[in-house]
Amino acid sequence: MRLSPYQQGQSTIEGISNPIKLSSNESSQGPSPLAIAAYQQAASQLNRYPDGSQSALRDAIGETYDLNPQRIICGNGSDELIQLMARAYVGDGQEALLSENGFIMSNIHCTAQGADLVIAAERNYQVDVNAMLTLVSDKTRFCTIANPNNPTGTYIDGSELRRLQAGLPDNCLFLIDEAYAEYATAEDYVTGIALADECDNVVVTRTFSKIYGLPSLRIGWAYCSAGIIDPVQRIRTPFNTNGPAMAAAAAAVKDTAYIEKIRTHNASWRERISRTLTEMGIEVIPSQANFYLLRFAKDSNKSGGAAGAFLQSRGIIPRPASGSDEFLRITIGMDHENEAVLQALSDYMDAP
Fold first, then answer.
1. E-assigned strands of 56-193?
2. What share of the chain is helix, strand, coil (3-state, %, to 5)?
3. 317 and 22 in contact (C-beta within 8 Å)?
4. Interstrand relation of 327-331 and 291-295 (parallel, antiparallel or unpaired)
5. Is the domain of 115 the same as that of 220?
6. Is residue 142 within 8 Å of 90, Cβ to Cβ?
7. How many domains does the chain have?
8. Are residues 229 and 316 in the same domain?
């Protein structure tokens, strides 16, 4: 088999009843109270099929982000939309161009379509546009990056995003996965929305699973040209987004004050955590997301695996990095959760 199954973040620790779960980049603050109320109200309509046109949710997204709702399509999480785009735009004998570190499901979806994966090395844990453009060929039909990236949390600025798009063939779909875009605060961070407005081969995906705090409901959206949407509409199932999920998402996206509160809280802790851990001697990869990636030097007596085990002994669940013992990823949580992480890592670094 060319495919390995996706490994979700650990959620339990044997012998500990209520661990601090910081393994899946979930929103520690939870969803907007307005979203919860809308979800509960939708329960009275469980005997009805949901609106297959997704019009109320598309309108709510369009109003909040000042976008044309006709260029929005919703899915069972942004993951399903990535899958649908791969099904529609890449296949046997064609190539999918991806960066070294990115959302692993993109690799899985393209492989499932029979595409050959072409992986560009990154530079300083960041998407390297030069490396990606060097690998473009006449078989390149699909290109995707996550911006900000996962698991690194790094990003490329607007000029680099445009340079990457300009170097791709016109018949190559360029998908920008922006699951963590709402967390980004860097002055030069630019979303791909304007690029999707200007270019017929660009699609931007977003999710309600991160800052909006609705991962259990599996709801996401994509923004692109009508030409891109058309074949996707032909292959998506008619009721791929359920009614309560769309109701909650529509309420959540309108509650901009609540989202700004979460964004501010996350940015404040992200800066404090990075500063504190750096002072402890741990390398923190600069992040624009709601998580941080730690690197432990190979020539030290510390490692990501050992740090992860130490955290678990304190009832904290991080996310180990696959294939390397140098790294450990941790979600930014609630105040007391972050304090517990900092104390545990301080004790770990002080231990012989």
1. 72-75, 95-99, 116-120, 140-146, 173-177
2. 40, 15, 40
3. yes
4. antiparallel
5. yes
6. yes
7. 2
8. no
Q: Which of 230, 254, 278 finishes a domain? A: 254
Whether 155 and 185 have beta carbons less than 8 Å apart is answered as no
With contact defined as beta carbons under 8 Å apart, do 86 and 109 qualify?
yes
| Beta carbons within 8 Å of 106's beta carbon, 6+ residues apart | 82, 86, 96, 98, 144, 146, 175, 177
**What DSSP state is assigned to residue 190?**
-
> Which CATH number covers residue 120?
3.40.640.10
45 lies in the same domain as 180: yes
Residue where one domain finishes, among candidates 224, 254, 284 = 254
Structure confidence at residue 27 (pLDDT): 96
Q: For residue 286, what are the domain limits? A: 20-25+257-350
* One domain, residues 127 and 63: yes
> What region, left, alpha or beta, does residue 173 occupy, with left being phi > 0 and alpha being psi -120 to 50 degrees?
beta
Q: How confident is the model over 183-223, as pLDDT tens digits?
A: 999 999 999 999 999 999 999 999 999 999 999 999 999 99
In a domain, 331, yes or no: yes
Q: What is the pLDDT of residues 140-159, one digit of tens each?
A: 999 999 999 999 999 999 99
CA distance 105 to 48: 32
Residue 167: phi and psi, rounded to 5, are -90, 0
Query: Domain check: are 68 and 193 in the same one?
Result: yes
Residues 201 and 237 in one domain: yes
Of 73, 7, 39, the closest CA to residue 322 belongs to 7
**Residue showing tokens 């609540």:** 258
**Tokens at 244, concatenated:** 């309560």
Give the long-range contacts of residues 293-298, CB within 8 A, separation 24 or more: 293/125, 293/151, 293/152, 293/153, 293/321, 293/327, 293/328, 293/329, 294/327, 294/328, 294/329, 294/330, 295/326, 295/327, 296/325, 296/326, 296/327, 296/328, 297/326, 298/326
Which tokens go with 99?
């960066």
- pLDDT over 60 at 133, yes or no: yes
